Amino acid sequence: MSQATGAYTPEPIIPGRQPECWIAAALILVLLAMFVEFILTSQAIHLDIIGKYLFEATILSGVLLTIELTLLATLIGHVLGVDLGLPGNTNPGHSSELSRHPWPDTRPLPRFPQRAGS
Fold it and tell me: Is the pLDDT of residue 84 over 90?
């Protein structure tokens, strides 16, 4: 607030410096590079055998089945959560709350304050 006029003037938002984020990112990159170097140079790890079995048809079908089951469980959980989680839903066959999507209620986090006049 300005002392002379008494009018509100918003202060500029200055992002804080966070060097620990850069330090953590550098540490993670170093650890990742060390892990890759270990995998590629280790005599105990046989990459040819891993490659042979990793892309076998039974392994890939198991991965596909896992993804399908995960998506199905997510869908079932969402449907049951919306149907059972809505208050006042006495008639499961007809619900006015189910006619609209629940997604507009979910907002991206964190919510940042907006400037005055925006």
Answer: no
